[in-house]
Design goal:
With 445 residues, chain A is of the alpha/beta class. Chain A has helices at residues 123-132, 145-148, 173-180, 182-196, 210-220, 240-248, 268-280, 310-316, 373-377, 384-392, 396-401, 412-416, 423-444; strands at 23-25, 31-35, 45-46, 53-54, 59-62, 71-72, 77-86, 92-100, 159-163, 200-206, 226-231, 263-267, 286-293, 300-305, 324-329, 336-337, 351-356. The termini of chain A are far apart. In chain B, strand 2 (157-159) and strand 3 (166-168) form a beta hairpin. The chains are: A alpha/beta (445), B alpha+beta (288).
Chain lengths: 445, 288
C-alpha cells in the first residue's frame, strides 16, 4: 500500500487539465509591478527611486531583517514610480513599478542552458547565496528559504524532504518542473543537502504523477542518498507536517517546527531556484505559474517574470471565459480569491485558477448537524465544529486550549461540511486573535 | 418511647454543635464588605454594559467605593445625574464628563461607493476584515456585515438595507462603546453630544491619497485641507490625507461643512439652512 499521512485528509477532484502542457516562456510584459511584501516576514526596503535605470537581476529592494528577502528586478527598464498598489488582499501595499525597456541582464548571470553539476561552494556560501538571491518557499507559503537552512542552535537535521506532492487540485507547475528540469532539480537538492549537511533526501510525489515519479526515480539513481517516495493521492499531503509524517512516519509536536523531528522540507520549485541561484548566479526573478480552469480555452504552464499582471497570463491562456465567477490566486483549496486582474504575479503565485459559476459561489449555510465529518478529515486532529463557535463567540482561552494554533488552514473541514458552514473562515479569525494574545503574553512576561 | 426521645436528643445535640461551629466559622472567616457597595450598585442603571471600563455594574460600584477620587470615572448610561447621586452617597466629588454618543465615520453607501466584488464568506466584519480589504475599492470603509449592530445591547443600531451602512438611533445610544470595540475598521467614534445634540464630524476614515480615495468613493475625505484653512478655532487637523475635527474645540460654526468639496463633513441636528442670498448679478444676454 502507498504511504500517506496518518490523520484525516480529503480527495477533491483533481482536474489537472494543464498536466500535459509543456512550460511556455511568457513574453516580458511592458510594465511590471513588484510588491515589497512578497514573503512572510518584514517587507523589503526599496533601494530604487523614480527614474532609476535597472537591469534584470539587479537588487531593487533589500531584505529588512532576518525573516525577510531581497527582491530583484525581473525586467530591465526605468522605474516609473514607487507607490501603493492594490495587492491580492484588496489592501494597498507598497510596490515598485517598472516600465520595461529591452531585456538587458546583469552581466554575471549565466543564462546558458548548460547543466552545472559540480558543487564547489561551501555550506555557508550556499546559504548566503540563497539569502542574496531572495529565494522564498515557492510552494505558496513564501517563507524565506535561507532561514529554514539555518537550524536554531542545538537542533540537528538528518533528512531533507523535497515536496513534489502538489496536492492542490488543478495546479501542475511542480509536475512540469520535475518533468522538464529534473536534472537541475537534483543538483538543487544536492546543494540543499550540502547546506544542511545531511546525507539523505526524500522526494515525495503523489501517485497521480506516474511520469514524474518514473522520471525522477531514473535520474535520482545517479545521486547518492536521494530517493523518490511515491505517495497516495490525499489532500493536504503537501503540508509540511503531513509530508514528514507520510515520508518518515515522524510527527511534529504541537506548536513546533519540522526541525524538532530532524527534518527540513523544501518545495521542488525552491530546489530549482536554489540551483539557478548557486550554480548560475541567477536570482529569483521568474517562476512557473499554472493558468487553468474548467472552461478555460487553453490551460497552460507559463514561465513568468515576477510582477506580470495576471491579466496577461489569462489572455495568453485563451482569455477570460464568460462564465468565470471567481479568479483564485493559488489552488482551489488554499488559494485566495483575487479582486482584480491587474494584480501582479508574486514569488508565491503557484497558479491562477478561473472558477466558473456556479462552482465559484458558496452554498447557503445550514446549521451544524454534528456529523463530525470535519473532525475525521482534519489532518491535525482538531475539532473544527467546536473551534468555529469558539471563534464566533470570542472565547479565545478555550480556543487556545483546543489547539486552534495547530490549524494549517488547509480547508478540508469547510470542503467536507455537508452544511457548508464557514468553518475555516472563523478558525482563521480565531488564529489571528489567539496568536495576538499569545504574543502579547510573551511580550509582557 | 425511649427510641423517639433518644432520636430527638441526638439530633438536637448535633444541631447545637453544628450551630456553634458555623457561628465560630462565620466569625473567623468573615469577609468585610462595605455596605455602601450595595447602595451604590442600586443607584447604577444595572445595564452591565461595561461602558465604564469595568465588568458590570457591581464591579464599577466596588471601584467607586474604593477610589479616593471618582472625578475621572463615569457611567455613560446614567451620565451626570447618576454620577451626582453616587457622589452624594459616597461624599466624593463627581466628574464632569460630557454625555457622548456614537457616530459613524463612513458614508460610503451603495450609491456613493460602487461594489467591485462580491463577498460570500461568513457574515462577520471581523472575518471579512481578516480576509481582505472589502467589496469596494475603499479598504478603510464599512464592510456592512453588522458586527456593531450585534454588539449593541441597547437597540441603538440597525443596518440600513438601502445604504448598506449601520444607523445609530441617538435616543437609545448610551455611548457604552461596544460598537467601537466591535468594529474592525475603527469607523465608529464616541463624540460629545454637543449643545442641542448638534454635532459636526468628518464621516470618513480613508487614509488613501485624495485621488485614490475619490476614485473608490464619491464622498471620501480627500485631505484637501480646505476645512482646516477655514476653521477659525484650530479644531481641524489633517493627518494621513484625512481630516479630523476635535469636538472639544469645535464651535459648530459649520463653515467646514460648506467648503468640503466631497460632502464628507456631516452636520447633525442643525436647523435647515437659510437659502443663500445670492448676489444678484445682472443676467447676461445669451450669447447667440
Amino acid at each position: 500500500m502507498l504511504k500517506t499521512f496518518s490523520l484525516g485528509g480529503v480527495h477533491p477532484a483533481e482536474n489537472k487539465r494543464s498536466a500535459n502542457s509543456p512550460v511556455e516562456v511568457l513574453p516580458v510584459p511592458p510594465v511590471v509591478s513588484i510588491p515589497l511584501a512578497q514573503h512572510i516576514g518584514a517587507p523589503a526596503q526599496a533601494l530604487v527611486k523614480k527614474g532609476d535605470e535597472v537591469k534584470v537581476g539587479q537588487v531593487i529592494a533589500q531584505s529588512a531583517g532576518f525573516v525577510s528577502a531581497n527582491i530583484h528586478s525581473p525586467v530591465s527598464g526605468k522605474v516609473a514610480k514607487v507607490d501603493q498598489i492594490v495587492d491580492a488582499s484588496g489592501y494597498r501595499k507598497d510596490a515598485i513599478i517598472i516600465n520595461t525597456e529591452g531585456d538587458e541582464w546583469v552581466e554575471d548571470i549565466d543564462r546558458s542552458a548548460i547543466l552545472v553539476k559540480e558543487i564547489t561552494a561551501s555550506p555557508e556560501a550556499i546559504i548566503k547565496k540563497i539569502g542574496e538571491a531572495g529565494i522564498v518557499g515557492l510552494g505558496g507559503a513564501t517563507f524565506p528559504a535561507h532561514v529554514k537552512l539555518s537550524p536554531p542552535p542545538g537542533k540537528t537535521c538528518d533528512v531533507l524532504i523535497i515536496n513534489g506532492v502538489e496536492c492542490e487540485p488543478y495546479l501542475t507547475s511542480d509536475h512540469r518542473l520535475m518533468l522538464e528540469k529534473g536534472e537541475e532539480l537534483l543538483v538543487g537538492i544536492r546543494l540543499l543537502m550540502t547546506a544542511l549537511n545531511v546525507k539523505k533526501a526524500i522526494i515525495g510525489i503523489e501517485n497521480n504523477k506516474p511520469d514524474a515519479i518514473a522520471h525522477m526515480e531514473k535520474l535520482a539513481s545517479e545521486y547518492e542518498g536521494v530517493r523518490v517516495q511515491p505517495l497516495k493521492v490525499q489532500y493536504p499531503q503537501g503540508g509540511e507536517k503531513q509530508l514528514i509524517d507520510a515520508c518518515m512516519g515522524r510527527q511534529v509536536p504541537s506548536g513546533k517546527l519540522p526541525i524538532e523531528v530532524g527534518a527540513v522540507v523544501h518545495n521542488v520549485g525552491t530546489a530549482y531556484a536554489v540551483y539557478e541561484a548557486v550554480q548560475k548566479n541567477k536570482p529569483l526573478i521568474e517562476r512557473i505559474v499554472t493558468v487553468t480552469g474548467l472552461s478555460l480555452a487553453r490551460p497552460a504552464n507559463f514561465l513568468t517574470r515576477i510582477g506580470t499582471p495576471i491579466s496577461v497570463l489569462i489572455e495568453a491562456a485563451g482569455g477570460l471565459p464568460d462564465d468565470t465567477g471567481k479568479i483564485i490566486g493559488g489552488g482551489p483549496m488554499m488559494g485566495k480569491a483575487l479582486t482584480s486582474t491587474e494584480i501582479p504575479v508574486t514569488k508565491g503565485t503557484s497558479g491562477i485558477l478561473l472558477m466558473p459559476q456556479p462552482l465559484a459561489s458558496r452554498k447557503p449555510v445550514d446549521p451544524c448537524i454534528r456529523c463530525s465529518k470535519c473532525v475525521s478529515v482534519c489532518p491535525m486532529g482538531l475539532s473544527p465544529y467546536l473551534l468555529m463557535p469558539l471563534a464566533e463567540k470570542a472565547i479565545w482561552d478555550r480556543a487556545e486550549e483546543e489547539n486552534i494554533m495547530d490549524c494549517i488552514e488547509c480547508g478540508s473541514c469547510s470542503f467536507t461540511c455537508p452544511s457548508s458552514r464557514p468553518l475555516l473562515d472563523y478558525i482563521r479569525l480565531g488564529k489571528a486573535k489567539v496568536g495576538q494574545i499569545m504574543r502579547s503574553r510573551t511580550a509582557t512576561a | 418511647m425511649s427510641v423517639v426521645l433518644i432520636t430527638i436528643v441526638t439530633l438536637a445535640g448535633l444541631g447545637a454543635i453544628a450551630a456553634v461551629i458555623l457561628f465560630l466559622a462565620s466569625k473567623k472567616f468573615q469577609v468585610f464588605e462595605d455596605p455602601r457597595i450595595d447602595v451604590v450598585e442600586e443607584a447604577l442603571p444595572a445595564a452591565n454594559c461595561g461602558g465604564c471600563g469595568f465588568p458590570g455594574c457591581r464591579a464599577f460600584a466596588e471601584a467607586l467605593v474604593k477610589a479616593d477620587d471618582i472625578s475621572s470615572m463615569n457611567c455613560p448610561v446614567g451620565g451626570a445625574p447618576t454620577m451626582s447621586i453616587v457622589a452624594g452617597i459616597l461624599g466624593k466629588e463627581a466628574g464632569s464628563a460630557k454625555p457622548q454618543v456614537a457616530v459613524l465615520r463612513c458614508n460610503g453607501s451603495c450609491e456613493h461607493r460602487p461594489r467591485l466584488n462580491n463577498y460570500q464568506g461568513a457574515v462577520s466584519c471581523a472575518v471579512a476584515a481578516a480576509l481582505y480589504g472589502g467589496e469596494t475599492g475603499c479598504s478603510y470603509g464599512c464592510l456592512g456585515c453588522g458586527d456593531c449592530v450585534a454588539a449593541c445591547k441597547f437597540d441603538a443600531m440597525y443596518m440600513d438595507e438601502e445604504t448598506g451602512l449601520p444607523v445609530i438611533i441617538e435616543e437609545n445610544c448610551v455611548a457604552c462603546g461596544a460598537c467601537v470595540e466591535a468594529c474592525p475598521k475603527d469607523i465608529i467614534e464616541l463624540r460629545n453630544i454637543g449643545p442641542k445634540s448638534r454635532r459636526i464630524f468628518v464621516s470618513c476614515v480613508n487614509k488613501d491619497k485624495g485621488a485614490v480615495a475619490r476614485k473608490s468613493c464619491e464622498v471620501a475625505c480627500i485631505g484637501c485641507g480646505k476645512c482646516e484653512k477655514v476653521c477659525a478655532f484650530d479644531a481641524i487637523t489633517i493627518k494621513d490625507n484625512l481630516a479630523y475635527i476635535d469636538y472639544e474645540k469645535c464651535k459648530l460654526c459649520r463653515k467646514c461643512v460648506e467648503v468640503c468639496p466631497t460632502n464628507a463633513i456631516h452636520e447633525l441636528n442643525f436647523p435647515p439652512r437659510k437659502p443663500k442670498v445670492e448676489k444678484t448679478e445682472p443676467e447676461k444676454e445669451p450669447v447667440a
